[in-house]
Structure formats: C-alpha cells, structure tokens
C-alpha cells in the first residue's frame, strides 16, 4: 500500500479513471470519514474528467491523510489502474 501525499500524475489519472470507479472511491472515502456527505455531491459536475478533478481537489485539501486514503481506496477499487500509476506515486 502507498503512503504519503498524493502525487499521482493528474492528467493520466483524469484520463484513465472511470466514473463508476470515481463513485466507489467517494464511497470508500466517506466510509473512512475522510470526506463528509456534502463533499460527495458531484451532481453539478457534468464530465467525468471534471469529476475526477473535483475528487482529487477535495482529497488534496484534506492533507496527507486524505491523500493516503484515496490511494489506498484506489488500490482496492481498481487494482489495475493503481498498479499502472504506482511507479508514479511518490511517498513523502
């Protein structure tokens, strides 16, 4: 598992993550009390890419604990994508 701050390559994550994975990531972050119900709402965001940007933005504002939680959730929800991005995740 990863630790440290989120240093995923934004453009690659945004290009490759699917909308169902984004929703599962939000569920995991809510379960782990990293985010609150209001932060789960992506209703006004139309594109998948903008939703991915919003999820990353919310988590980055939570600091290293939030970033670590997102990375751990990504490993659970989409192991294939997390392995592809793993060499580019930098622990701090």
From TrEMBL:
InterPro entries: CARD, DEATH-like_dom_sf. SUPFAM superfamilies: DEATH domain. GO terms for biological process: regulation of apoptotic process. Gene3D superfamilies: Death Domain, Fas (1.10.533.10). Residues 13-89 form the CARD domain. It holds the Pfam family CARD. This is CARD domain-containing protein. It comes from Maylandia zebra.
């Amino acid at each position: 598992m990863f630790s440290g701050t989120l240093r995923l390559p934004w453009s690659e994550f945004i290009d490759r993550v699917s909308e169902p994975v984004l929703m599962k990531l939000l569920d995991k972050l809510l379960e782990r009390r990293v985010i609150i119900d209001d932060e789960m709402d992506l209703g006004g965001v139309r594109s998948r890419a903008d939703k991915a940007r919003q999820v990353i933005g919310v988590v980055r504002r939570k600091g290293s604990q939030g970033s670590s939680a997102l990375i751990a959730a990504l490993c659970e929800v989409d192991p294939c994508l997390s392995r592809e991005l793993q060499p580019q995740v930098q622990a701090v």
